[in-house]
Amino acid sequence: MGRGVGMRSYADVDAEGQELAHEEPLRGLDRLLQLQEFDLSIDRLTARLRKLEGGEDLRLARVARGEAEARLGELRLAMDALGREQRRLEGDIDSMERKIDAERRRMLDGSVANPKELQAIEAEVRNLGARKSHAEDLVLEQMERGEEMHRRLSPLEAEEAEARQRLATREEGSARELVEVERALEERRAERAARASAIDPDLLALYEELRRQKRGVGAAALVDGVCQACHQKLSPMYLDRLKRAGGVRRCEYCRRILVF
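-> structure tokens emitted (260 positions)
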């Protein structure tokens, strides 16, 4: 198989049993797993930095606060509307009470002598009484609804205050964490560069190419015959040949570089 310009030919054990080429141990092969751990750490920090810069945590906190404020605001509006309706009903009841009293006085003070007119006044008093009774029932219902709303008010106020405090904490914490993550990334990248310089350039190029292909993992330990990246157990024949090989040893299945 053709190799890229400047790329040294490595001994590469494969599942088809190709001839093994024995080479001197590659510089830095034993340090590859340490470099892998650094790279994974850098990947995690980079992902966190992007999340912080994108403000996803803050966005979610703002959404939570907005939803809590909306629930509290809707309840308060409902309570205000209920209070206005209850006051209107109480005003109507008071007005009807006064009118009933006035009509009864007319019936009893002798100012109305016509029987038909007296019957009309009596009918009006009965009608007003029925309307007043219905309004009083509505007031009782409004009072019960008001009590239920007041029971819901305190928890919603607490929820809104907590969401507001959480957002303030996130805003402060995100700004501080952003600085810390940027500093940590700078330190890790500098140390990573120092460690990478101790690794054979061609081996490093292969490792980095595998990292791009294999979701960030280009090298893995071989423990008890099992690749710690894909968790597949190598066949006994392949494992035996692998242990006698020089150069780069790669997994029978995922083709990552194996270190053991």
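Residues 115-196 form the longest helix (82 residues).
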